[in-house]
Amino acid sequence: MESSIANLLLGKIVSILENEVALFSGVRHEINEIKLELTTMGSFLEDADRRRVHSKTGSAWISSVRDMVFEVEDIIDEFTYHVNKQKQLGFFPKVIRYPGNLLLRRKVAVKLRDINQRIKSIAERNQRYGGANQIEGAYMNFGGTSLNYDPNWLRNFSESSLFLKDDDLVGIEKAQKKLLGWLLHEEPRRTIVSVVGMGGLGKTTLVANTFNKHIVKQHFDCCAWITVSQQYGIQLILKSMIKEVYKKANEQIPENLSSMSYRDLVETLVEILQTKRYLIVLDDVWHINFWHDISVALPTNIIGSRILLTTRMEDIASFEFDVINYVLPLSPLTDEASRNLFCKKAFASKQAQCPPYLDPLARKLVAKCEGLPLAIVALGGLMSSKRSLAEWNEIYSNLNWELSENDKFERLKYISLLSYHDLSYRLKQCFLYCCIFPEDYLIKRRRLIRLWMAEGFVEPIKDSTPELVAERYLMELICRGLLQVVTRNESGRPKRCKMHDVLRELALSISKAENFVAISDVEDCGIRRLSIKAKEHGIKAGKGIGKLRSLLVFTVDDISQSSFNRLPSGFKLLNVLDLEDTPIDELPGELVNLFNLRYLNLTRTKVKELPKSIGKLFNLQSLIAEETQIKELPPGIVKLKNLRHLIAYRYSVDYLEFEYALGISVPSNICSLERLQLLSIVEASDNLIKQLSRMTQLKSFHILKVREADEENLCASIGNMRLLRYLMVMSCNEDEILKMDALEVAPPLLEKLLLAGKLGKVPRWFNSLHSLTYLYLHWSRLREDFLPHIQALPNLGTLKLINAYEGERLCFLEGFQKLKILMIWKFPHLKEIVINQGMMPGLEKLDIRNCQEFMTLLHGWESELPDLKGVYLEDVSSKIMQQFCAAANVDYQPTIQATEASIVEVEESKFEWHYKFWL
């Protein structure tokens, strides 16, 4: 396993030696010699990794090589650091003759010669004791051949899976029926239900599917899902619970939530839950102490409230929580259910049908999983890439040899390990890296992709961007069951993922053995990547800090701002610094000396400005400052020639108002950054608009404060952005006309379009938006009927309209065949919505708010919208509310007091209703 880590580093080092050879003048002989050694070593290590070396001699040899590679990386990074420091001081290109550098070169040459000699000594020692022969013979019963790898299949399968929904659940019907009975029973006393079982049995999957059922949401006044995990911060959990409960109750979240004490948090929860029938899910409880911490905040009312928890621990499930307790022990799947789940994963491209010639082996493989859903999914994902009977026999033979023990948990870990071993060495790094996030953490797709790029895991492929290659990596991990999709976006792409705790434990154990990732303090010596949970003391230096390349900080509870205003000086070789959600308000001065830095994440920090000398970070690829206090970028930003992702913006308080998004001021020559892919959200200026024509490489572009006079230049520039997928344009104020008519044809790949500002007329290029999946018109206040201009768009899935139309009728007469989400907010004159037969056949969500004149019910909507799952009404006329309630067979009871809101959730067999009516 160590070989894959070392091999990736070898590739990085050889690339540095080839691309930056000018920096190493004076040590070229040593460099060329070590490059040859490393290249040969890399080929041997990749072969060893593919053959699953696990002999003691072979592992010791690989471990020695890995340590040597780490040392070479340190030497080269250190040398590059000093050379670039001299360059910044103005000594370059005369760097070779500078006395300080001559001394540095001599030191580097001595170190490299020593490394070369030690590499040869390792090889000689390995040959002397027969290590090479042991490596050649170590196949772990795979018959001496490598597993076949079909990259074309992988690409097709991964990309097609972007648009697949998650696997249908199998084998949970009886357990779910029992669970629903306990939750929906008429028993008025508070009841606690525990779902217990070992990791990988599907506890969370069962509970999540039950929690999301409409009949459950209808039964309770408010519901909240809280993930607990082994290490938890009680105040953070209480705050999350308050947010969930208030959100589900359609009430304003307390403004002082962030500063509340434990006592305040408990009192706030008790106050809102006391009079409500609530359902609280506590997922993944490990310690009974957690119940003692949380129970005081959950009132014991007698109106049918329920608490549902999942745990691996039998003693927690059997604890006397309350007057009424139920325990649901989860059992492994039956043989039939196991086979059905396996086939869904292994034969997804064949409608889950197993070919007859593979059926006997499929049954034997499923039997090895002993009914564990996680193992079945992992094994099915592995077998989905195997086509021949010989490959299936190899996997089965290996399983038959290894799974001699009867311990189910060990069986689960081994099957997961087998799936891990089948990955390419780059995908191994991507998988292991996911354990750097805390347990049960929801990982955003884009964040993970940018981190992988910064770490150097993404293979450079001709005619493809690193972002696309990394997304394919992500999809393969998902297809193999090594990552779980939690939410998807409008296009079906994963939006947030998580790592099952069993797989995370596996990744952590491998990472620890290889010094790949550590989840601890900075005391660990030699660690390259570190994930820490922020506490009051901030970030401490330790003896291993000089080796650190990546630091990710995650907040647990409220911590002081001053704790994070300095970084230890030893962080000089850092590649990744992720401070998302930490309460830092000022960046430390040492930051600009991190010349190796490729990724800087300041999202939701309280940072107000970036350092003026930020241009020193010339290796930076991603600068992410979402929802910070930064209003302006320093001129030095244009020196970041490797920058690919620049994101900095804030949101205003009221989403319904015109200026809901706030951008940043940027230097006009930002357009000189030729590698920039994403620019969000910038404020327009005369010079910026004129220079935008240079940014033809952009894929995502967001610009605010556009004037009428900018039309020609702006549209000409957008027309040349042929790779653009996401475009946002906002006028300088709500009365300024947003003129976009000079754009003749929209960028062909455009998927998301957001126009904010008054449109005099519908842009004529709307009918060319053939790739568009998401359209948002904000404060357009159109007078003409705009629907005929977009009704034929073949891929439109989401249509969001806020104050977009001043007419009285919206008529969906044709088209909209793929529309799933329709949101109509703040239409002051709208009285009627007409939907012709056959229109919007796939509509799932209809959301109408702040339309006080809306009076006429959609004719025939019950039968014409067969896929409709949710109707959301807020601030509409009492007449329309009565009509909807009548259609749903619900009594309409308006609120007595003018200041109160009436919130009703109604559910039939296929609908979920929400309405909020103000008298």
UniProtKB/TrEMBL annotation:
GO MF, one annotated term: ADP binding
Domain of life: Eukaryota
Keyword line: Nucleotide-binding, Plant defense, Repeat
One Gene Ontology biological process: defense response to other organism
Residue span, Disease resistance R13L4/SHOC-2-like LRR domain: 547-869
Residues covered by the Disease resistance N-terminal domain: 7-88
Keyword Transmembrane: no
Segments forming domain Disease resistance protein winged helix: 436-507
Domain (NB-ARC): residue spans on this chain: 173-350
Coiled coil: none
Protein name in the entry: Disease resistance protein
Organism: Corchorus olitorius
